Amino acid sequence: MTLLRDGVYTVLPYTAETLRCVNRRIPLSETVGKRKRAVFQENGKAIRGCFITLITISNMRELLSLITSPEESFDILMNRGYEKVIYRNLTLRSFELRSRDDENVTLKIEVMESEDSYTDSFSPVTPDLFWEREKTLNYMDYDLTEEGRDASLGIYRFSFLGKFEGAASYSLRVYGPVLADSALNENESIEQLFLLCLLMTEEDTISLKIKFTNLCPAESTKGSDTHGEQLMCRLFRIEGPISIEERGTNSYWGKEL
Predict the structure, then answer these.
(1) Cα separation of 166 and 249, whole Å?
(2) Torsions phi, psi of 143, nearest 5?
(3) What is the DSSP letter of 31?
(4) CA distances (Å), 230 to each of 153, 185, 223, in order?
(5) How far apart are CA 37 and CA 35, in angstroms?
(6) What is the reported pLDDT for 115?
(7) C-beta of residue 229 within 8 angstroms of C-beta of residue 256
(8) Within 13 Å of residue 27, how many CA atoms lie on the same side as its CB?
(9) What is the Cα gyration radius of the chain?
(10) How many Cα atoms sit within 13 Å of 103 on the Cβ side?
(11) Which region, left, alpha or beta, applies to residue 156 given φ > 0 means left and ψ of -120 to 50 means alpha?
(12) How close are the terminal C-alpha atoms of the chain, in Å?
């Protein structure tokens, strides 16, 4: 799988994909005197589906640009072996950045078509690129921190979700232990949380930093594990600005949502 955006080809190490063309159907009014049943008329094709990819040193900036500029269109070049197809002029329906302790950070991208979307075939000059194995971004349970608290929150799993149908909305779901004096345990808003993940190579150390502000509680559950430790799951709506930064020794990229 290859992402094509602004003339730049970026190979993605995807772990799953469901991109397909489906029939677009319009519901019709029922015929008078007939039994009630769903009646539809075919009205062209729609592109639907999603893909899940790992974040690496070579694709991080392009993927971050994708989720921070959801209104900009992009292409996906897909070589499934039995077919090669290009999905043109897609836009972003939603994304989910997620991970759990000591595992790869993955990004789920759900697409939707625009008025200019269509499918195309590979031409003789279409590059057929393949991913070469490289370092991927990982998450550790001390990577998510709370403003004013030095100790680790112990968040062993998180999910950062953005939706773009209608007005853009963002949320953050976290899973971790119930800790004394942590704002995560209270049914109150949190001013700031920080996510900082590192990707280290022999040549450089690349960091992904996300700053969440004005987190409003939306959902909360608590329980205990088999060892009796108190655990919580909290969902926050993010009402304030979100800043995303990628930084290396000699490079920097940043944008605010």
Answers:
(1) 38
(2) -80, -15
(3) P
(4) 13, 11, 6
(5) 6
(6) 85
(7) no
(8) 5
(9) 21
(10) 11
(11) alpha
(12) 27
Instruction: For residues 51 and 31, give the distance between their C-alpha atoms in angstroms, rounded to a whole number.
Output: 40
Which letter, b or e, does each residue of 133-143 get, where b requires 16 or more Cβ atoms within 10 Å of its Cβ? eeebbbbbbeb
Tokens matching residue 250: 């000699």
Least confident of 35-44, 183-192, 204-213: 35-44
What are the angstrom distances between the C-alpha of 10 and each of 2, 20, 54, 207? 5, 20, 12, 19
101-125 as b/e: b if 16+ CB within 10 A: beeebbbbbbbbbeeebeeeeeeee
pLDDT at residue 228 is higher than 70: no
**Would the pLDDT of 27 be above 70?**
no
Give the rounded distance of the alpha carbon of 145 from its chain centre: 20
C-alpha 132: how far from its chain's center? 22
Say what percent of the chain tops pLDDT 70: 85
Q: How far apart are CA 77 and CA 87, in angstroms?
A: 7
Structure tokens at 231: 């655990």
Interatomic CA distance for residues 80 and 96, integer angstroms: 24
Query: Please, what sign has the CA dihedral across residues 19, 25, 26, 27?
Result: negative
d(CA 50, CA 95): 9
Asked if 248 and 206 touch (Cβ cutoff 8 Å), the reply is: yes
